[in-house]
Automatic annotation (TrEMBL):
The gene is ndk_2. InterPro entries: NDK-like_dom (IPR034907), Nucleoside_diP_kinase (IPR001564), Nucleoside_diP_kinase_AS (IPR023005). Keywords: ATP-binding, Cytoplasm, Kinase, Magnesium, Metal-binding, Nucleotide metabolism, Nucleotide-binding, Phosphoprotein, Transferase. It is an enzyme of class 2 (transferase). ATP binds at K9, F57, R85, T91, R102, N112. Residues 1-138 form the Nucleoside diphosphate kinase-like domain. It comes from the Bacteria. Belongs to the NDK family. It catalyses: a 2'-deoxyribonucleoside 5'-diphosphate + ATP = a 2'-deoxyribonucleoside 5'-triphosphate + ADP; a ribonucleoside 5'-diphosphate + ATP = a ribonucleoside 5'-triphosphate + ADP. This is Nucleoside diphosphate kinase. Its EC number is 2.7.4.6. Pfam families: NDK. It comes from Paenibacillus allorhizosphaerae.
């Protein structure tokens, strides 16, 4: 079963959106197999955003994601990587369609509420950065 790593960023946590965001993915039909509230270490943040390390906004990105607690989640379901990214909307809220998470809740690219893995390979890498195997439910469970 395909898995993804979704993370309510510090702006989403501060705006009390955790419940609404979890509800969207539950109602879509995905299964939540792990979740926790935590604060990223600088090392976890730099590893998570490694592909952006040469971008001018890298420092800002790491500072923002470590600025407060996040709500990290592992979800599973058919085609969950592509479907959850469609539900999140485009990175820049100016391009994010109404009805998507960023279209409905975000005003700028830096503070865009939620992260979602961009491929199954990224999901594996991201999940192992934040979760130990024993923190995740294994296999399918009844819903
Ligand atoms: P996300 O797609 O979750 O992961 C990379 C993040 O980089 C992206 O969300 C944005 O929050 C951030 N980002 C992308 N472009 C910019 C930018 N020009 N300025 C600040 N942050 C950016």
């Amino acid at each position: 079963m395909e898995k993804t790593y979704l993370m309510v960023k510090p702006d989403g946590v501060q705006r009390h959106l955790i419940g609404k965001l979890v509800q969207r993915f539950e109602e879509k039909g995905f299964q939540l197999i792990g979740a926790k509230m935590f604060r990223l270490t600088r090392e976890q943040a730099e590893y998570h955003y490694e592909e952006h390390k040469d971008k001018p906004f890298f420092g800002e990105l790491v500072a923002f994601i470590t600025s407060g607690p996040v709500f990290g989640m592992v979800w599973q379901g058919d085609n969950i990587v592509a479907l959850s990214r469609a539900m999140m909307g485009k990175t820049n809220p100016l391009d994010a369609a109404p009805g998507t998470i960023r279209g409905d809740y975000a005003l700028n690219t830096g503070n865009n509420i939620i992260h979602g893995s961009d491929s199954p390979q990224s999901a594996d890498r991201e999940i192992s950065n934040f979760f130990r195997p024993e923190e995740l439910m294994t296999g399918d469970y009844p819903v």
